Amino acid sequence: MPPLVKLHMRKLEDLQAVISNAVTQLSFPLHPAALYEPLTYILSIGGKRMRPALLLMACDLFGGDINEALAPALAIEVFHNFTLMHDDIMDNAPLRRGKTTVHEKWNQNIAILSGDVMLIEGYKLMMQVKDNLLRQILNIFNETAVGVCEGQQIDMEFEIRDDVAIDEYINMIRLKTAVVLGGALKIGALIGGADQKDADLLYDFGENLGVAFQLQDDILDVYGDPQKFGKQVGGDIISNKKTYLLIKALELARGETAVSLNNLLTQKQFDSAEKIKAVTSIYDALDIRQQSENEMHKYADKAFTALELIDIPEDHKQYLRDFADGLMVREN
């Protein structure tokens, strides 16, 4: 384990820095090298470290010692990167954060097996919580991990379906994305001394905020500033990805608009820029952006409702409000 840090702070960016420093000090066995080197590699290529930082933040908010939360926070980061390693194989992705993916740098079999051992290393870190909390926290971690796998499977099934409903999509992003935020916050809260009621409310806050965050990501993929978004705007349109915007458009489109949209979705050869422009034009005509933003705000409001019920000082609640606002008012 990395050396303990003696800090008490509230700034999320400071907590992210703590995690980034701790990640660099994680050590794995040297042999067999092809099994363990990919772990160090994928952990070294960056990321915002948001999920583990939220675990530390939740511990801090309830007056706990973040040193006691550091190992489980690292477990969340290791688990997250394990999912990325396997996701990249499933997506046949050549790059991750601008760097060569593990299965491309080594090979697919190594990436599968390294991902497997990475999951186990995550559990070894999570096992370092105090014995009186161990069973409860492992249960949360297990439920989170299963949820992510379920979400990924449902997302893959969406690729071959043309009848995906809005509620199915919301459930998929809840499982694939939001449960990790909720789980990280709940684990941190319990380590920090929160009672069960407050830990559950903080989970609800994180899960609903996670859904809202993903909905905003869908919106930014179409309407974001390419210079600020950090990835290609319109990528979801090019790949016919089942996002809230597309599902809602398919639900609302009638007549010639429906015909045009379906034609755009079934084209095998097309100019990417023209397809993005044409689909966006249909979204505009159906007021899809506003409806998507309304849905996003609905889940953000649910998060704030849970927050108001948490028994923590008002300045701590304000910190969480500011964090949520910063997460939702973004361009990347």
Description:
The chain is mostly helical and 332 residues long. The chain has two domains: 10-146, Farnesyl Diphosphate Synthase, CATH 1.10.600.10; 195-332, Farnesyl Diphosphate Synthase (Orthogonal Bundle), CATH 1.10.600. Helix content is 74%, strand content 1%. The protein contains 16 helices and two strands. The protein has helices spanning 12-24, 33-44, 50-61, 66-91, 102-105, 108-126, 131-158, 166-191, 196-223, 226-229, 235-238, 244-252, 255-266, 272-285, 288-308, 314-328; strands at 95-96, 99-100. It has a two-stranded antiparallel ribbon with strand order 1-2. Helix 4 (66-91) runs parallel beside helix 7, helix 7 packs antiparallel against helix 8 and helix 12 packs across helix 15. Residues 1-9 have low confidence and may be disordered.
Secondary structure topology:
Elements: H1 12-24, H2 33-44, H3 50-61, H4 66-91, E1 95-96, E2 99-100, H5 102-105, H6 108-126, H7 131-158, H8 166-191, H9 196-223, H10 226-229, H11 235-238, H12 244-252, H13 255-266, H14 272-285, H15 288-308, H16 314-328
Antiparallel strand pairs: 1-2
Helix pairs in contact: 1-3, 2-6, 3-4, 3-8, 4-6, 4-7, 4-8, 7-8, 8-9, 9-15, 12-15, 15-16
